[in-house]
Protein backbone atom coordinates (compact mmCIF):
# COMPACT_ATOMS: atom_id res chain seq x y z
CA UNK A 1 0.00 0.00 0.00
CA UNK A 2 2.88 2.38 0.78
CA UNK A 3 4.20 1.93 -2.77
CA UNK A 4 0.75 2.97 -4.04
CA UNK A 5 0.80 6.20 -1.99
CA UNK A 6 -1.30 4.99 0.94
CA UNK A 7 -0.05 5.57 4.49
CA UNK A 8 -1.33 3.39 7.33
CA UNK A 9 -2.50 5.61 10.19
CA UNK A 10 -4.76 3.39 12.29
CA UNK A 11 -5.59 -0.25 12.87
CA UNK A 12 -8.44 -1.59 14.97
CA UNK A 13 -11.22 -3.67 13.44
CA UNK A 14 -9.86 -2.64 10.06
CA UNK A 15 -7.12 -0.45 8.66
CA UNK A 16 -7.26 3.27 7.97
CA UNK A 17 -5.07 4.78 5.26
CA UNK A 18 -4.46 8.32 4.05
CA UNK A 19 -3.18 9.36 0.65
CA UNK A 20 0.47 10.36 0.61
CA UNK A 21 3.40 10.20 -1.77
CA UNK A 22 4.45 6.66 -2.73
CA UNK A 23 7.19 5.22 -0.53
CA UNK A 24 9.31 2.06 -0.71
CA UNK A 25 8.93 0.83 2.86
CA UNK A 26 7.89 -2.20 4.89
CA UNK A 27 5.16 -2.19 7.53
CA UNK A 28 4.90 -5.01 10.04
CA UNK A 29 1.97 -5.92 12.25
CA UNK A 30 2.73 -7.49 15.60
CA UNK A 31 -0.17 -8.98 17.56
CA UNK A 32 1.27 -8.98 21.07
CA UNK A 33 -0.19 -8.00 24.39
CA UNK A 34 1.82 -6.95 27.40
CA UNK A 35 1.18 -7.45 31.10
CA UNK A 36 2.32 -3.95 32.01
CA UNK A 37 2.83 -0.58 30.37
CA UNK A 38 6.56 -0.83 31.16
CA UNK A 39 6.93 -4.01 29.06
CA UNK A 40 5.15 -2.27 26.20
CA UNK A 41 7.38 0.82 26.44
CA UNK A 42 10.52 -1.34 26.56
CA UNK A 43 9.32 -3.19 23.47
CA UNK A 44 8.67 0.06 21.58
CA UNK A 45 12.06 1.42 22.65
CA UNK A 46 13.82 -1.67 21.31
CA UNK A 47 12.33 -1.17 17.88
CA UNK A 48 12.79 2.61 17.93
CA UNK A 49 16.49 2.04 18.65
CA UNK A 50 16.53 -0.25 15.59
CA UNK A 51 15.19 2.53 13.37
CA UNK A 52 11.54 1.46 13.32
CA UNK A 53 8.60 3.78 13.92
CA UNK A 54 5.59 2.75 16.02
CA UNK A 55 2.47 3.75 14.09
CA UNK A 56 -0.45 2.49 16.16
CA UNK A 57 -1.38 0.20 19.01
CA UNK A 58 -1.39 0.20 22.78
CA UNK A 59 -0.36 -2.04 25.65
CA UNK A 60 -3.22 -4.47 25.16
CA UNK A 61 -3.63 -4.18 21.38
CA UNK A 62 -1.70 -4.97 18.27
CA UNK A 63 1.22 -2.80 17.28
CA UNK A 64 2.13 -1.66 13.80
CA UNK A 65 5.78 -1.07 13.26
Query: What is the helix tally?
Result: 1
Strand segment tally: 4
C-alpha termini separation? 15 Å
How would you sum up the global shape? globular
How large is the share of residues in beta strands? 15-25%
Low-pLDDT residue spans: none
Q: Quick one: biggest sheet? A: 2 strands, antiparallel
- The residue-averaged pLDDT reads 81
The strands making up the biggest β-sheet line up spatially as 1-2
What would you report as the Rg, rounded to the nearest angstrom? 13 Å
Relative helix content = 10-25%
Number of domains: 1
Query: What is the string of SSEs from the N terminus onward?
Result: EEEHE
Task: Note down, in words, how this protein is organized.
The protein is of the alpha+beta class and 65 residues long. The chain has one domain (2-64). The chain contains 1 helix and 4 strands. It has one helix at residues 37-49, and strands spanning 6-11, 15-19, 29-30, 63-64. Strands 1-2 form a two-stranded antiparallel sheet. Strands 3-4 form a two-stranded antiparallel ribbon. The two termini are 15 Å apart. The model has no long low-confidence stretch (mean pLDDT 81).
Amino acid sequence: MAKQGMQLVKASFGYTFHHTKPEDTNIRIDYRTFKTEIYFLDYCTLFKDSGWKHIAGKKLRNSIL
